[in-house]
Amino acid sequence: VQLVESGGGLVQPGGSLRLSCAASGFTFSTYNMQWFRQAPGKEREWVADISSAGGTTNYAESVKGRFTISRDNAKNTVYLQMNSLKPEDTAVYYCRRTGNYWGKGTLVTVSS
Fold this sequence. Notes:
By secondary structure, the chain is mainly β. It is 0% helix and 51% strand. It is built from no helices and eleven strands. The protein has strands at residues 2-6, 9-11, 17-24, 33-38, 45-50, 57-59, 67-72, 77-82, 91-97, 101-102, 106-110. Strands 2, 4, 5, 6, 9, 10 and 11 form a seven-stranded mixed β-sheet that branches. The chain has a four-stranded antiparallel β-sheet with strand order 1-3-8-7, with no helix packed on it. The relative contact order is 0.32. The model has no long low-confidence stretch (mean pLDDT 97).
């Protein structure tokens, strides 16, 4: 199992980023996927998840209405579209597959 996140970077408050997580080594279309994040000095927290076919999504209250999780099973990739970003969204973002498989993360910094 390999999960590789990308798309992080520095963005101003109110801006947008789209994160990607490329998966390999398993049958991607049969697994639910999750995004987590860990801010400096804080515990890792769940952000969003999506069912295997993409029909069901769930979000943490802190990102609901601003972030959108999606997936492309033909490309073995899960996405996190992040809009209206706030400084408190600054964190390393990780994707996770059921069974406790994690990527190495991508850093998102929201700052002016």
